[in-house]
Amino acid sequence: MNDFLKIFLVLCAVVSAFFFGRNYGEVTIEESAEIKSLKTIGFESQNAQQQLNNFKSKIQKLLDNADFTKPEDALSQLTTLFLTDLSLRISSEKLAQLKEPKKEIPPLIAKDVFQKEKELNDKIEIERKKNAIRNPAQFRTAEDNLLKSISTEEIRRHLKKVEVRKIDSLLEDAPAASYEESQQLFGSYRGSLIDVTNNIYGTLAFDIQANSSIENPIKGSIKFYRNGEEHGAKFFETNWLGFKGSGSQAFIVEFETDYLQIYKIENSQKIAGIYYDRLPNGTSKTIGTFVLSRIDFLD
Fold first, then answer.
1. Mapped to the 3 state alphabet, what secondary structure does 22-91 carry?
2. CB distance 204 to 215 below 8 Å
3. In a domain, 199, yes or no
4. Which residue range(s) make up the domain with 211?
5. Would 278 be classed as within a structural domain?
6. With 42 labelled, which of 49, 60, 179, 220 sits at a CA distance of 20 to 30 A?
7. If we measure between CA atoms, which residue out of 151, 154, 155, 143 comes closest to residue 246?
8. Cα 38–Cα 41–Cα 42 angle in degrees, nearest 5
9. Following CA atoms 73, 76, 79, 81 in sequence, which dihedral angle do they give, to the nearest 10 degrees?
10. Each residue's pLDDT tens digit in the chain (299 positions)?
């Protein structure tokens, strides 16, 4: 009996040692706060990447299905996606603007706008035609006759046939005169300006020469005298001398606030033209005509 009791007590001790002392001899490792933080960050990073991928997929799906003929609808859907997925905030007023359908111009108003635009374009076209030379073929013939004139009287007679009501008709789309074209006017010229009443209004003096400058190969001056006193002057160094009139053989040269319509007469050492005062409303007032003889060259 005593032996049995001893054996029972030994077995109880062995079992107790197994349950309460099974970690005996083992080392327990506890994770530090840094390790736990790194694991948390890694988990959050993976979660954020997953959210980003989901968000990109939603945007791509929206773009694939969007109707870009109605961009306001696509914008509304995109804005809603940002608001819901990124927890952004927007005022109720602006949200209502997004949901509000695009207002279209009522047919009657659209028709009225179209009609007004058409009327404006018609007025512009009418004004352009007023500025334009009425009979271009007849005008070119008159210019040809002028360039072939010989006497001063003949030149003055043909000048009246190339007079324009608006100098803008020659300036519209007119290209700048090239150096080669400008060479036709090189020289010193002097002569009277005869007004519309056929009286001497003053004297014009041109002095146009070649310049040694490569950038500005033309130099000279244009002067206007009345009663022996200088009343206007223009000095220049340039690479072009005025414009070649649109649809014309004339040189158009600006002189202070006025314009000169100038022709080189082929058969004589003369230049001739018309002196205009350009008015604020765009119309032109003819001051007179001039025929200038070259004074630095003997005929």
1. CCCCCCCCCCCHHHHHHHHHHHHHHHHHHHHHHHHHHHHHHHHHCCCCCHHHHHHHHHHHHHHHCCCCCC
2. no
3. yes
4. 134-294
5. yes
6. 60
7. 143
8. 85
9. -70
10. 555 555 655 555 554 555 455 554 444 445 566 555 655 655 556 666 676 677 677 777 766 776 656 666 666 666 676 666 555 555 666 656 655 555 555 665 555 666 677 666 655 445 545 555 668 889 899 999 999 998 999 999 999 999 988 888 888 888 889 999 999 999 999 999 999 999 999 999 999 999 999 899 999 999 999 988 999 999 999 988 889 877 789 999 999 889 999 999 988 889 999 999 988 777 889 999 999 999 986 54
- Alpha-carbon distance 239 to 217, whole Å? 5
CA–chain centroid gap for 161, Å, is 39
Can you read off the two tokens belonging to residue 242?
A: 């005025």
Q: How far apart are CA 263 and CA 247, in angstroms?
A: 14
- Whether residues 82 and 197 share a domain: the answer is no
**In the chain, count of helices (H) and strands (E)?**
9, 9
Total domains in the chain come to 2
Question: Which residue, 64, 88, 103, sits at the end of a domain?
Answer: 103
Is residue 196 included in any domain, yes or no?
yes
Q: Are residues 70 and 197 in the same domain?
A: no
User: Which two tokens mark 252?
Assistant: 């158009």
Check: CB of residue 260 under 8 Å from CB of residue 245: no
Query: Are residues 143 and 275 part of one domain?
Result: yes
pTM of the predicted model as reported, rounded to 2 decimal places: 0.56
